[in-house]
Amino acid sequence: MNALNKKTVEDLEVSGKRVLVRCDFNVPLKDGVITSDKRIVASLPTIKYLIDNNAKVILCSHLGRPKGEFNPEFSLAPVAARLSELLGKEVKMASDVVGESAQALAAELNDGDVMLIENVRFHKEETKNDPDFSKKLADLADLYVNDAFGSAHRAHSSTTGVADYLPAACGYLIQKEIDFIGGALANPKRPLVAILGGAKVSDKIGVITNLLEKCDTIIVGGGMAYTFMKALGYSIGTSLLEEDRIEDAKNMMETAKAKGVKFLIPVDNKVGKEYDPDTEAMVIDSDSIPDGWMGLDIGPATQQLFADAIKGSGTVIWNGPMGVSEWENFAAGTIAVATAVAESGAISIIGGGDSAAAVQKLGFADKMSHISTGGGASLEFLEGKELPGIVALNDKD
Length: 397
Ligand code: AMP
Known about the structure:
Layout: E1 18-22, E2 29-30, E3 33-34, H1 38-52, E4 56-60, H2 77-87, E5 91-93, H3 100-108, E6 114-116, H4 131-139, E7 143-146, E8 168-170, H5 172-186, E9 192-196, H6 201-211, E10 217-220, H7 225-231, H8 246-259, E11 262-264, E12 268-272, E13 281-285, E14 294-298, H9 300-310, E15 315-319, H10 332-344, E16 347-350, H11 354-361, E17 370-371, H12 375-382, H13 388-391
Parallel strand pairs: 1-4, 1-7, 4-6, 5-6, 7-8, 9-10, 9-15, 10-11, 15-16, 16-17
Antiparallel strand pairs: 2-3, 12-13, 12-14
Helix pairs in contact: 1-2, 7-8, 9-10
Bound molecules: adenosine monophosphate (AMP).
């Protein structure tokens, strides 16, 4: 798959056409009220483009896990209401997904009108990528646009199957993910530096393995770094350890050496007595963590080491915090790395999930070139896996 060669919404003739758009409206809800409309706002550029170009817009999404049956708790009606406010025009809400209501509303649409069908996961066929259900979704429209990057790693009817029946292109959100992540992997501005952190080595093995083929430098911090220290024979006290990944860690460091890829792990750490935000803490070198202490953040010498490696890079890919950044006492390493990335002038790509949240919370969001909208999807993209929701789209002519 060449993700960079996929058709975008601008490659389609949308005027007067019914366009089914798969959005990511999986918004947080509390007692039926949307607590963050970030995902709805993020979908606006594609929707506005379609309205401005006289398309008849049919939106769809999943919301939560309604387990394949109608459940008002997971209705998209609050999204239609918020979207109406944001667009300044009515977004008609169907009471079903592919039934009479959806069909009737789709048939009545005028150019520039917008409607939303119900939660696609009200049908169990959705997550099975059932061809009949995909066809029913496709029958609502003439064209298909996928703009739900967060679900692009899932082969479901609304993300993948529907493209078997309609001309298919990506919206602006997916296009941006492809341009940044796909671009960094295929043709990076060098040096290419990857920073990986977070809790588990096992989550990131695929990413490191793929990036070892492409990067000039790999930086490992966070809880996962202690398995690498263990692999070097260091004592790591009660720090996080994945016993069954020690061998993998050793292999990754050896591969890096053989390939001439610089591979950095922490040289010092802020360790605590207990896994507690206010635990007694001290700074200690990586090869001398005492028994009964656990590494909860990188130390100041490591902050400097990592910042020096980030300085002067052409592209930085970052996924996972350097420590327990949710706790003020152990956030300094993540802040130092965020600062170094922000000041590097490099193309900076932040993986979704925890790293995106950390960058946002720490106030660095507008300093980054791209913050991914999909945690799982961005990891799979970085692993070099083909994302079904992108593979299914048509190639440019
Ligand atoms: P991930 O979801 O793999 O990106 O991991 C993010 C989580 O890793 C955050 O909740 C952090 O609190 C946690 N984390 C990062 N560093 C450490 C550490 N040294 N010890 C324990 N947890 C950590």
